[in-house]
C-alpha cells in the first residue's frame, strides 16, 4: 500500500498507522489463525464428545434389550442360547455349544446385530446352562430345562483386571467393546477380549490409564431362576 497515495487528514499519523498495519499483517494472520484454531477446537472437541455420548446412550439402551431377549429365550426353550460362532446370527451347538464365547445370536433372539460403532456384541454363556442336557449336575434335573435352582454360572465380573468382584456365578454376559473395539491396550478392556470367564465392568475413562469405554450387561442367575420359577418351568 502506498501511503502517500491515500487521502489522509492527519498525514503523519496516517503514515505511522499504515506502517504499523503492514508490520502487523503477518502477526494479525497468526493471531487470527490461533483464534480460529481455538474456536474450531472449542467446537469440534465437544462435538465429538457429544457424538460419542450419543453412541454410548444408544448402545446402553440396546444391551438391556439383548439381556431380556436372552432370558425370554430361556423361558421359551428351557436353556440359554449358545453364541453364534460363524457370523450368521444363529446359535451354534450340537448338544453342547460350539463355543461358549462368540457373537450374540441376533437372529435367534430377534435383536439388533451391531452396536452404535458397527461392531457385533460379544456374548459369553456358561456351557451347561445352554446345552441340551437337562440340569447341570448339582441336583435332580427338571425335564427339558438345562439348569436347576442350584446351578451357578461360571462367569465373574470385576471392577478392574484382578480387582474386586462385582458379580459372581453369572450365566451369561453381553459386551459392547465400544469405540476402540479390538484396538485397546488397556488391561481392563483386554480382560473383556481374552476369551475367558473373567470380565471387567467399571466407569468410563478416556484419559486416565487404564482407559475404559466398554459397555456391559449380564444375566443375573437369580433373576433368571426367578423368571423360570414364575413361569412354572423350575420347581
Ligand atoms: Ca451361527
Ligand atoms: Ca445343562
Ligand atoms: Ca473398548
Ligand atoms: Ca477375560
Report on the architecture of this protein:
The longest helix has 67 residues, at 11-77. The protein is an alpha+beta fold. It is built from five helices and nine strands. The chain has one domain (65-230). Strand 1 (93-94) and strand 2 (96-97) form a beta hairpin. The termini are far apart. The model is unreliable at 1-5 and 9-15 (pLDDT under 50). The strands form three sheets. A four-stranded antiparallel sheet has the order 3-4-7-9. The chain has a three-stranded mixed sheet with strand order 6-5-8, with no helix packed on it. One calcium ion binds at residues 177-178, 180, 184, 189, 213-214.
Give keywords.
single chain; 235 residues; alpha+beta; 4-stranded antiparallel beta sheet; 9 strands; elongated; disordered N terminus; binds calcium ion
Short structural summary:
The chain is of the alpha+beta class. The protein is built from five helices and nine strands; from the N terminus they run αβββαβαβββαββα.
- The SSE string, one letter per element, is HEEEHEHEEEHEEH
Which strand order spans the largest sheet, edge to edge or round the barrel?
3-4-7-9
Instruction: Give the beta-strand count.
Output: 9
Average pLDDT value?
Answer: 90
Strand content: 5-15%
| Number of DSSP helical runs | 5
N→C terminal distance: 95 Å
Spans where pLDDT lies below 50 across 5 or more residues? 1-5, 9-15
Profile the largest sheet: 4 strands, antiparallel
Rounded to the nearest angstrom, the radius of gyration is: 29 Å
Class by SSE composition = alpha+beta
Shape: elongated
- The share of residues in helices is 25-40%
Total domains: 1
| Ligand identities | calcium ion
Amino acid at each position: 500500500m502506498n501511503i502517500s497515495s491515500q487521502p489522509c487528514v492527519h498525514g503523519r499519523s496516517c503514515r505511522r498507522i499504515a506502517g504499523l498495519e503492514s508490520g502487523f499483517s503477518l502477526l494479525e494472520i497468526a493471531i487470527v489463525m490461533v483464534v480460529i484454531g481455538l474456536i474450531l477446537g472449542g467446537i469440534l472437541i465437544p462435538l465429538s464428545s457429544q457424538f460419542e455420548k450419543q453412541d454410548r446412550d444408544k448402545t446402553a439402551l440396546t444391551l438391556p434389550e439383548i439381556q431380556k431377549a436372552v432370558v425370554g429365550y430361556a423361558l421359551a426353550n428351557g436353556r440359554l442360547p449358545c453364541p453364534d460362532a460363524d457370523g450368521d446370527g444363529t446359535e451354534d451347538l450340537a448338544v453342547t455349544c460350539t463355543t461358549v464365547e462368540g457373537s450374540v445370536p441376533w437372529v435367534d433372539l430377534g435383536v439388533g446385530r451391531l452396536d452404535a460403532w458397527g461392531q457385533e456384541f460379544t456374548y459369553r454363556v456358561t456351557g451347561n446352562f445352554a446345552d441340551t442336557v437337562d440340569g447341570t449336575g448339582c441336583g435332580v434335573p427338571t425335564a427339558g430345562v438345562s439348569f436347576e435352582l442350584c446351578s451357578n454360572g461360571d462367569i465373574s465380573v470385576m471392577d478392574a483386571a484382578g480387582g474386586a468382584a462385582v458379580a459372581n456365578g453369572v450365566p451369561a454376559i453381553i459386551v459392547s467393546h465400544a469405540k476402540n473395539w479390538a484396538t485397546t491396550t488397556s488391561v481392563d478392556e483386554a480382560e473383556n477380549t481374552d476369551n475367558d470367564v473373567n470380565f471387567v465392568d467399571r466407569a468410563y475413562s478416556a484419559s486416565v490409564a487404564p482407559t475404559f469405554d466398554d459397555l456391559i450387561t449380564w444375566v443375573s442367575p437369580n433373576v433368571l431362576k426367578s423368571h423360570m420359577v414364575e413361569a412354572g418351568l423350575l420347581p
